[in-house]
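Record type: monomer structure entry
Structure origin: computed from sequence
Chain ID: A
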Amino acid sequence: MYNPTNQYRCTIIRGKSQTDMEDLLPLYANMVHKFCPCEEDQFKTSCFKTLSKALFGTEAYDQLSDSNKKTVQNHLTEVAGTLLGLYYPYYDFETDRTYINESESCKYLIENDDYPTFFKNLCLNFQFPNGAKWFQFIEEDIKNKIHLKPFCYVVDLLYYAQSQPEKEILTKQEVGYYVLNNLDVLQGNVPCSIVYDQIMSDRKNKVKREKLSGSRDWQHIKEQFNLLELANIIETDATYIWLNKEETNAIACFLKHKEDFIFDAYKYEIGSTAEKAIYLEEWKKVYGQFNQDLINVHTKFRGNVVILGRDEQKAHSGATKSTVDLGDEGEALVFRLEQERVRNYRERLVNKVLLLGKTKGLGYDISSIEADENPSRPEFARYIEVKATKRVTEPSFDSPSWMDSLNITAKEWVAAEQYGDYYNIYRVYFTKTKTFIIRIQNPFKKAENGEIEVYPTIYQMNFDASVIEKRYAQ
């Protein structure tokens, strides 16, 4: 049975705006990557200092007002930990201490700089019930037999809708009311075809349903739409919601895993404090796992899934371009940009712009010249390392809290020191609306001056036979 009026408010942690989520994501991820693994108290102390400096311009967390301290705490625990799943706790019975570990999804983000795939993984892992609420609400969800992967269900419903002959576009209000706020659906008992037929029937018969609005009734719905948009899975306007036709393979991945629950909330007896701690610890660990199927979303995943854009349904799509190799596309874009810049300065010099990204050991991707940007030394070489990233929103460079981070190899850092003012990092941001390119000149000097922070994350150890204590044979 499916009763649309059987409403149930199933909330999620409130995040930031879409732009803030992506602007702050590298801060969160690199903070976790830098300090983990470590004891819980040390983790909080180190992260509070980092967040205090980023948000309020001072590392003196203890000197902040109570309100600002609460803000810092929420960024670390509620957003970075509970919502984004960047880290998880581990209790060591032998030492009687709690340690904090970096999640798999955080490691993926650090290594690949692909924000939409990070959010895809988050949406794939998310389910009701989970460990991202106060226990009184977890217990309420369990009492009401909630059992749904909401993001996968929404994708399934939108895919079903666009597969019907009439190809109707659903509204955000319809998805919110008939799906994300409906007890029958949240219990996992209603196929999306039934929901779709009910929506179409109500439309035809001009049935007016309650409009969800306000921070209490609509915010938890909006948060879920925001995460699906950050995953680049859906597109929306003020009224409607539809699938992004450029993400066919990722959508196939959502359809494949719609019944794969990573966490069994019903196996726990959460009456005791100890059992509650185990419940939360195990949820946070699995929530941060990375689904390896997402590695293949830009290759052949499932050929029979076809996604129609809104232009093929009721209006235009405006979907973003999908990239096969983020690094290669960033290098190609900057290479064309440099060719054009040098050509505009002096046509005969354009052959000095060389794409060298496939040449190992150089420490840079493109060799160019200073040209118009250094009139006193126009033909001096310029060495360019390209670092590309992918996100949905446009970076808010003018925001006081905006920051970014990237990985740089030892050879690239040696080149940065060697070439000084002639070494540049070009940071490329591929977004849904446009592509942004920024230039950072002489990062080595900026690091020496304290303008940027650089720290090693991998150490290479070379040794010979003289240091071997013992050899074991199997």
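Annotation 1: Confidence is low (pLDDT under 50) at residues 299-303, 315-324.
Annotation 2: The chain has 17 helices and eleven strands.
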